[in-house]
Specification:
By secondary structure, the protein is mainly β. It has one domain: Beta Barrel (Porin), CATH 2.40.160. It is 10% helix and 55% strand. The strands form three sheets. It has a 14-stranded antiparallel barrel. β4 and β5 form a beta hairpin. It is globular and about 60 Å long.
Length: 336
């Protein structure tokens, strides 16, 4: 019996280590409340301080000054106590001028799921009848500085040089001691690496074309069993604005497949932003789909309201069959 328990413990530990190898570090849509309200169709819009995240090339076409404080949360499934489950939360601050932006974002991805079946034993069971649950917490803190340069009269190239501090922690616990809150409290060793995002924005009349290369130099944290990598990610977008700039229609397309907590995906999104004539209120809507699984669709919406001239409260929410995109966001934005 003692030997069998040792074998089970060793297998469980190995499962934790193997699963960590596939830890998702793609959190590209976890930032930007306006972007979330438009379903993630923001690469060719990117005209506020979150351009430092979504597309640095958009800084030159935005307002003279923009500053944003925000928090977002995506949780799947929303039902408390469900297993498996994951939660992605972010907090951030960014400030931008036409050719310079500074930003800080902290993102955490927490997850719980049953330990895979052990040969010769009831799947996921210990002798006491308690289900083994694997907990995982990935934390990323990013400090970024963004600069850009115009190339001719139609094209802007820009980049975000960033320092990224990351950690990954895992544990196995009985079901009655496992939760997303418990996963979020895990603490692992941290490392800091330099990274680079590159963005381009081309404008032809009322049409804008955007291209974003996130993690141009792929960053790998840890070189052991729990190594994880910030993979290179290519995303393109197109946007059209009305003559009065009150209406914007946009579309985004992932150019590569990425890995997220719910599996592999390749996103496509369309979104709309509509401002009132006074520019005191805006409404947004969007639809996002994983083109590798057309059944995973997220529908989002958002509102901006001016509390005073140049100061806005932004909110966004998403629902739908794609659990990984269900959530909400809130931001305070100053722009002039």
């Amino acid at each position: 019996m003692k030997n069998m328990l040792l074998v089970r413990a060793a297998i469980a530990a190995a499962l934790v280590e193997v699963s960590a190898l596939g830890a998702s570090a793609q959190v590209s849509e976890a930032v930007g409340v306006r972007a979330q309200g438009m379903g993630g169709a923001f690469t060719a819009v990117a005209d506020d301080a979150t351009a430092s995240w979504w597309n640095p090339g958009g800084l030159a076409g935005g307002s003279y000054f923009s500053s944003i404080v925000e928090t977002t949360n995506q949780r799947q499934p929303a039902t408390e106590g469900a297993v498996p489950a994951s939660e992605t939360g972010s907090r951030g601050f960014s400030v931008a001028y036409p050719a310079l932006a500074l930003s800080y974002y902290r993102l955490q991805v927490s997850g719980i799921q049953p330990v895979a079946s052990i040969a010769g034993a009831t799947p996921g069971r210990q002798d006491g009848g308690s289900t083994d649950i694997r907990l995982q917490s990935l934390v990323l803190s990013q400090f970024g500085a963004t600069v850009g340069q115009s190339v001719g009269s139609h094209l802007v190239l820009a980049s975000t040089l960033k320092l990224v501090r990351g950690s990954l922690a895992t544990a196995v616990r009985p079901a009655d001691a496992a939760s997303l809150d418990a996963a979020s409290e895990l603490d692992g060793p941290t490392e800091m690496h330099a990274g680079l995002d590159i963005g381009a924005m081309a404008r032809f009349g009322r049409v804008k074309l955007g291209l974003m290369v996130r993690n141009a130099n792929e960053i790998t944290f840890d070189d052991g069993e729990q190594a994880f990598t910030l993979d290179r990610h290519f995303r393109a977008g197109v946007a059209y604005s009305s003559r009065s700039n009150l209406t914007t229609v946009a579309a985004d397309f992932d150019l590569v497949t990425t890995t997220v907590p719910t599996g592999e995906e390749r996103r496509a999104a369309v979104g709309l932003e509509e401002w009132s004539m006074s520019r005191r209120v805006a409404f947004r809507g969007g639809v996002s789909v994983n083109t590798l699984d057309l059944g995973r669709v997220a529908v989002s919406g958002g509102v901006s309201a001016a509390v005073r001239k140049g100061t806005y409260v932004d909110v966004a929410a998403a629902v739908g069959s794609d659990d990984s995109r269900r959530g909400w966001g809130f931001a305070l934005r100053v722009t002039f």
